[in-house]
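Example record

One chain of 383 residues, shown exactly as stored in the release files.
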Amino acid sequence: MKISQTKDIRSANRLTIIKYIQDHRQTSRARISEETGLNKATVSTIVKEWMSMNLVRETTMGDSSGGRPPINLTLCARAGFCIAVDIGVRQVGLLLTDLNNDIISRSSFSIEAPDFSHVYRQLYTSLDRLIQEIPASSYGLIGISLSVRGIIDLDGIIRFIPKLKWHNIDLKSLLEQRYQVPVFIDNDGNLAASMEYRLHPQYRELTVLSITDVISCGMITNGQLIRGYLGFANAVGHHTINMEETRQCSCGKYGCWEQYCSEQCLIDEMNLRLETPISDIDSFIRLVKEQNSDALEILDRYIENLAIGLSNIIFFINCEMIILNSRLIQSLPYLLPEIIKRTILPITHGQEILISTLGKEAPILGASRKAIEEFFETLSTRL
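Predicted structure tokens for this chain:
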């Protein structure tokens, strides 16, 4: 076997072990060997390497069916920290997390004006403040990871955020130059899908649909994200579902799914019938719960349009599971059976549709998870 191949195998084994420890919080060397298939000598050697880097430590004695209890291992979660950023249409959220992806602190700011230079000033001011909160640690800030509601190409450049009118912005490089740490950026749909996949690894063909002011999607096939030639294979919110539409979508097309199934479309439709306008999806949900006839009519049409788009996804990618991340559906879970009824056809009867348990945190937690994984992967190759 070539030396390079041997190094690759050792790097992969290191990554497997550190991920296993991270996922299980506390585990033993014996359990790692049993579950990963790596022999005990390899596990012991690699654990010793991670311990020498102050990233794994021995902890309380574990349970045993007999004999001497095994010594558990745990991640040194506070050895390093990550900042995750979720750039929405109206608000930007920030999380400071440790290496277990546990949240240490959070902050947010409203987008006062969509101009990029203005939002960027708001962003680095918030980042500067959050960095001051990072405790002393072995590795400090390991990276900044961003979730964006728009089209990100394979080089990490923001090609287009329709709602903010941002074009061709290299935010990744700007932040790398300012903070001198690795910066990662991806579409919020991809990051949400990656996070949901960790909770549902039994589904190798998985689609996650996030519905906020926009429609975002992440599609996983054979365990891998589908990105496409230029990186925006998941832009399903801009698939056309109405060829007769005369109103222009923010993307420049007409009749996009997002025009009919985003939270904003529900608010806009409702405000055409109200004397006192509403400004958020929670207000619309309240009207539905009060059995407001206009809200119920709008909701029924919404479900019909949602089912059209979901059927298109099923026929397009033939996924076995769709996870819906929607404030509306999470608040009104009785809607799900009706959505399934209108979506699933005899030929597509094998698909399942679930409501996300992660909610709006999915993209930003997926972003922080991405930075942590990249940190461990980089170290795995350097040991």
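Notes: The chain has three domains: 3-75, 78-188+363-382, 192-361.
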